[in-house]
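Hi W., the zinc ion complex you wanted:
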Amino acid sequence: MNTGKRILCAAAAALLLTAASACQSVPYTGRSRMLMTSESYETDSGKQAWDELKKTETISTDATANALVARVGKRIADAADCPNFSWEFLVFRNPEANAFCLPGGKVGVYTGILSSMSCEAELAGVIGHEVGHAIARHGGERMTQSLLQSIGAALLSETTRNEQILQAYGVVSNLGVILPYSRKHEHEADTLGLILMAKAGYDPSSLIAFWRNFSKTGGSSGSFLEKFLSTHPLDSERISAMEKQLPEAMQYYNRAKNKYGKGESLSFR
Ligand SMILES: [Zn+2]
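Structure:
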């Protein structure tokens, strides 16, 4: 497609989206970014994709696991303070190490990642990281990029729209290609994850220990963490960036009304 056509397509696509917003900034980090998707478009798409996932993926019947994810997730949700979100938390029975938060607050945790955790704070950190991607609207930013590439994006069939939102939020499903988050988005979700877990009353240093462990085991081939790392690339530079942010996160932790430290020990095998 030539540049002129691309600009026309992008403009047409933008017109088809209600309340398209321009430059806005990410909470806590203050980074400004261009969004052509409205929050309500993202939330509606997230809700539809979530309904579809509930039909296609196997929801875990483990009441203890679901209660745990709901309890820890609620604390992260309270810390995130998003009045427009309609939060839901579910555990999916899937051996892959993955977790996600769709726009509007639909949080899924796979049994494959739950089994690698030794305490509640690690779960709080992973949910915090995923919620961080959602409140920063990283999926909307990715969709904006695809809108800029194709007029078709706004006119896609429902199925393709679901697929697009799932891919935009890094959900592993049977839908095919998963785009890894960019380095910039990963760093930002790390920052937001540390702040949210600390505000929720979980010791943020536990998350850094967990990621360090991830980076050791995730590199080996056939590791169950491979899938998670393929959508959330992790390296020593990311871990040292989080270490630098720890003092700021500790300030939020020190101000938290309830402190849980590492929380309860977990042993889902
Ligand atoms: Zn991530």
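DSSP finds eleven helices and five strands in the chain.

W.
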